[in-house]
């Protein structure tokens, strides 16, 4: 039955049916094949999305969109310029810093890619050409789901159940995110030096740094307030997301004064459409997961994996190889919803720390957002800038290689991921 459900889903998805409805039809087909009363579908769909923690997804999206509409990008770029100074590849490094700052308030690679492409590519292409400029933007946008807050980590924690907390997942991404940020900065400098790109930026001065710090402080107080409140136990992730929305409204209306009442309908509509898509996939996937469970698929997969290897590291390598392929062909939210309930319990049987496995799972699929043929970040950047896909992929490979290097380091040295969450009691 499990193979029949999976085959039905893949065929429908390849024929172009939206992934949520492909899951729904596959679930109906599985119920019909197994002889289970179809009446069980409706309550399962409702119970799957009737969840307080899931409300954090649209709220974090709204907070990120409000910050963007409120003029966050201008201040982030000025802040980055003040610290980078006049160095080779300086504007490229400013883009990476801006991407990291944006990641700390949005948590979504697609939104970050859209914002960075529309605001920074026109300036970048004057110095570096369109290919390298878009490669930098795509890499910077991919920091979004790694540096907290992260929508992907929220979805993973929800699908993994009580053994994984959202706060713990957020903290697991801090150190790897900083390492990846540093590697991206070094790569930008090395490529600029190799290609002899001109010096860019303004000289670093203490007065300029202090001025931009003062202007940008209100932006960086948001992740400190929200993430600090979640980690400190002051409020839940959903309540933290609501606090972030309120903060973004105050910032946009009264501090930067660039947010308008006319912007709110677009912000709410964008969040509603994305949340509806995720919610529909979670609802239909709950029935598919139910069918997998009664077919004992998780137990069969666990037996198969343990028959292949009893080494936790080799298991992680097998999962990474599988997710490399999955990330190339399947949208990441669909992958979380379908695969986390299957492989998370198996990882626990191998004795792998749930936060360690969760971060590696998310990181694998984040890399998939930069790999063709279904890399969603690639499509967003291409659509906004007009760059050819082949040119963008060619310029993105050094950054993809850096991401795989960090992934491998996190697999070999789990402490990179787990040290900070453990210190904070997760």
Describe the structure.
The structure is a single chain. The protein is mainly α. The chain is 78% helix and 1% strand. The chain has 20 helices and two strands. The longest helix is centred in the first third of the chain and has 33 residues, at 109-141. It is globular. The mean pLDDT is 84.
Descriptive labels:
20 helices, 426 residues, mainly alpha, two-stranded antiparallel sheet
Structural class estimated from helices and strands? mainly alpha
**Poorly predicted ranges:** none
**Strand runs, count:** 2
Q: Within the largest sheet, what's the order of strands?
A: 1-2
Work out the helix count: 20
Taking Cα atoms only, what radius of gyration do you get, to the nearest Å?
A: 22 Å
Give the SSE string: HHHHHEHHHHHEHHHHHHHHHH
Write the layout of secondary structure elements.
Blueprint: H1 2-14, H2 19-34, H3 41-49, H4 56-69, H5 72-84, E1 87-88, H6 90-103, H7 109-141, H8 151-160, H9 166-172, H10 174-195, E2 199-200, H11 206-232, H12 237-255, H13 264-294, H14 297-308, H15 312-329, H16 332-349, H17 354-368, H18 376-385, H19 389-412, H20 415-423
Antiparallel strand pairs: 1-2
